[in-house]
Amino acid sequence: GPMIYKTYLKTEHSDENIEFWLACEAYKKITPQRKRISMARKLFTSYIQPWAPNEINIDSPARKAIIRNIQEPTQSGFEEAEGIIYRHMERDSYPQFLESQFYQKLKHNLMATIQWEIEE
């Protein structure tokens, strides 16, 4: 499911949201501090810092909190930004995905396949 949604988001030029969210989910599972610092810096340079290659749309307080904590990142260091992005997808891009031709065509093809298998 997430990969199909990501494919759709690429067509809408907003796949940075799902990529960030998935990266945050992986980040939260990192336990060695050294790996966490490395991953936090990658998240910051890819998604958070101004003019990042995949900059996400978060508010200034969330961005500033990450900047303050980037030197000693914790497992929860990106949760506020992750929540903002999740809510954005939940309220905006996911409903658009469900209404898109991309999803409707996929759903139609899946239903046709299931019907064909039932008839076999």
TrEMBL record:
It comes from the Eukaryota. Signal peptide: none annotated. Pfam families: RGS. Residues 1-107 form the RGS domain. PANTHER family: REGULATOR OF G PROTEIN SIGNALING (PTHR10845), REGULATOR OF G-PROTEIN SIGNALING 13 (PTHR10845:SF32). This is RGS13 protein. It comes from Leptocoma aspasia.
